[in-house]
Amino acid sequence: AALIRLAESGATEFAVEGNSLRISGPVSGAATERLERLLEQTPGLERVVLGDMPGTDDLSWLLGMGLLIRANGLETVAEGRLINDAVLLFVAGERRVMAGGALVLQSDAVARREGHPVDRRPATVAERVRYAERMLGDAGFAGFFEEMRATRDQHVLSEADLERFGLLTGG
How far is residue 66's CA from residue 73's CA, in Å, rounded to a whole number? Predict the structure, then answer.
């Protein structure tokens, strides 16, 4: 079953459009290296536009991408539906803007039911906390994320949530 899900899940999709890099799809193992190459080969990129992204089944891949986005001073724009760990990619932006997208936190149960990847390794909680502290200045969002994962629901972050956790910097 896991092999079928992997085969059907597709790879992370990248497309350069002017000074923007569009990323969508599930974050796979090769995505970090692909992003690094694109950043080296495409000077002048200013933003990463995030389309529909169901997350990843290995958080370290996604966090590697996030660190590259932040190190390059790029803006992140949420145009698609970012689920669970994909929200952390949005958080990587030096500037972060919502543009019709949705930031969705799903419980592990909902994510599995909908066929979305879930990184269940014990170390992922600590990784999320460190990453949130680095990107946002505190771990409040990571704690909220873990609370949501333990429920049986999903939560679309509201404007109040975005403000509460300092997720937006403009727009």
Answer: 11
